């Protein structure tokens, strides 16, 4: 892996640095990257491939169904979902596998949620035999892929323009309050069945925060949840560049960068990362390992596809919120850094805490984490597991993969045999 990130020319190094800003949000995020583009037109369409070997077209030109699903011979549908606060989100559906069986109401729905600075392509990077979305479809599940606000196909809004700062006035709190509920509501209405959920990295953060809410919007529609490289507590992560980045983000970053949108391909972010790489003890020649830990099982062609889908934008406020999570060691709502503002928003001086011990004890959970993961560190996962210590024993399945790091859980060529087979078996036990 390291050789793929070694570049001799300074300009090339800067490009790799910019591409790998995803790494910072890998600090609470996810890994696979994806370029963003203009919003799609409204409407619903189905795409069915007749020639699986057709050339791959850039996703931003045709959508994820045509670029990454239908080319493999799967039926795929594109939808747009509107949140209560007006954001228009892209969603894909793979209603059936390639062989046998048609889509129908008797199939169990599974919702896949990616992390930050990436989109739903996370679940489609490897071959159909190795990618979780395809594996679930081939095992008889009705697969739905979510894409959070600000990513390339989810940049629409009822009244706001993504080119202007008001559009970016959100953090992961809003993903908990609006994006995830909108996705759940839509899938539930379409299928009339409770939903199985899979999140990776920050996709686990927003899920755990939501599940912990008393009277939460999701629990009544949730059947079970699988959490891969779970992120909730981040105070023990072992990536020095990640820690340095998190410290740099604490403060009023919007003013510092002069922007509300955090664009990984922009000049300001490039300058920020160059400054991080100049710090003593920081190795920017192997950024992937520096951020995620030493991944054991990545395929070179998958990494190449990953790099072609350059990082996507998120809200600068979201970056600050994630950094607060690292700094404070507590899972809480966004801290406005001002008692008056916190009082205005929350009615108290400090942001409310998401109490994970409130996650319903009878909710079936599958948790898989890695011994080499520098972001979802073993010690932090143990803190998470301690918060679930009163969970019903037969409802909590925990898997520890000694050799896996952060990216292995979504890109690893051995993930099927090691993680996905166990995950599929877990979901089938809920039938």
Number of helices: 17
What composes the largest sheet?
A: 10 strands, mixed
The proportion of strand residues reads: 5-15%
Shape: globular
Roughly how much helix do the residues carry, as a percent range? 25-40%
User: Over all CA atoms, what is the radius of gyration?
Assistant: 20 Å
What would you call the structural class?
alpha/beta
Number of strands: 12
Report, as a whole number of angstroms, the end-to-end distance: 40 Å
Give the SSE string: HHEHHEEEHEEHEHEHHEHHHEHHEHEHH
- State mean pLDDT (0 to 100 scale): 79
Contiguous runs where pLDDT drops below 50 for at least 5 residues: 1-56, 252-256
InterPro entries: AB_hydrolase_fold, AB_hydrolase_lipase, Lipase_euk
Domain Partial AB-hydrolase lipase: 69-126
Protein name: Lipase
Pfam families: Abhydro_lipase (PF04083)
List the helices and strands and how they pair.
Blueprint: H1 10-19, H2 22-25, E1 45-48, H3 59-62, H4 64-69, E2 75-82, E3 87-94, E4 109-113, H5 132-138, E5 142-146, E6 156-157, H6 172-191, E7 195-200, H7 202-211, E8 222-228, H8 240-249, H9 253-257, E9 261-262, H10 267-277, H11 287-292, H12 300-308, E10 314-315, H13 316-328, H14 339-346, E11 365-370, H15 378-387, E12 396-401, H16 408-411, H17 415-429
Parallel strand pairs: 4-5, 4-7, 7-8, 8-11, 11-12
Antiparallel strand pairs: 1-2, 2-3, 3-5, 3-6, 9-10
Domain Partial AB-hydrolase lipase: 69-126
Keywords: Hydrolase, Lipid degradation, Lipid metabolism, Membrane, Transmembrane, Transmembrane helix
Organism: Papaver atlanticum
């Amino acid at each position: 892996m390291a050789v793929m990130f070694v570049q001799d020319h300074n300009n090339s190094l800067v490009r790799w640095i910019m591409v790998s800003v995803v790494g910072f949000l890998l600090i609470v995020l996810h890994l696979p990257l994806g370029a963003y583009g203009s919003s799609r037109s409204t409407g619903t369409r189905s795409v069915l491939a007749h020639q699986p070997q057709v050339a791959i077209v850039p996703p931003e030109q045709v959508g994820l169904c045509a670029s990454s699903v239908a080319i493999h011979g799967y039926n795929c549908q594109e939808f747009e979902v509107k949140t209560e606060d007006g954001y228009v989100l892209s969603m894909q559906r793979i209603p059936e596998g390639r062989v046998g069986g048609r889509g129908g109401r008797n199939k169990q729905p599974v919702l896949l949620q990616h992390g930050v600075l990436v989109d739903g392509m996370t679940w489609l990077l490897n071959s159909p035999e190795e990618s979780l979305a395809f594996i679930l479809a081939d095992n008889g599940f009705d697969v739905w892929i979510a894409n959070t606000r600000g990513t390339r196909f989810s940049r629409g809004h009822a009244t706001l323009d993504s080119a202007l700062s008001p559009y970016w006035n959100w953090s992961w709190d809003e993903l908990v309050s609006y994006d995830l509920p909108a996705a759940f509501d839509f899938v539930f209405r379409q299928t009339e069945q409770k939903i199985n959920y899979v999140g990776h990295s920050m996709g686990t953060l927003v899920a755990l925060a939501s599940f912990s809410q008393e009277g939460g919007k999701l629990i009544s529609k949730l059947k079970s949840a699988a959490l891969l490289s779970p992120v909730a507590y981040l105070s023990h992560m072992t990536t020095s560049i990640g820690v340095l980045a998190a410290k740099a983000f604490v403060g009023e970053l919007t003013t510092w960068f002069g922007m509300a949108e955090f664009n990984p391909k922009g000049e300001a972010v490039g300058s920020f990362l160059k400054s991080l790489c100049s710090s003593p003890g920081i190795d920017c020649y192997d950024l992937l390992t520096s951020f995620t830990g030493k991944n054991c099982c990545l395929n070179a062609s998958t990494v190449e596809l990953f790099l072609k889908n350059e990082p996507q934008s998120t809200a600068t406020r979201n970056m600050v919120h994630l950094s607060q999570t690292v700094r404070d060691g507590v899972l809480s709502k966004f801290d406005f850094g001002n008692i008056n503002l916190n009082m205005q928003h929350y009615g108290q001086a400090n942001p409310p805490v998401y109490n994970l011990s409130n996650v319903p004890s009878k909710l079936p959970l599958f948790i898989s984490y890695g011994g080499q993961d520098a972001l979802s560190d073993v010690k932090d996962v143990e803190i998470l597991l301690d918060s679930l210590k009163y969970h019903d024993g037969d409802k909590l399945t925990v898997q520890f993969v000694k050799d896996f790091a952060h990216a292995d859980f979504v890109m690893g060529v051995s993930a099927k045999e090691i993680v996905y087979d166990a995950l599929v078996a877990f979901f089938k036990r809920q039938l």
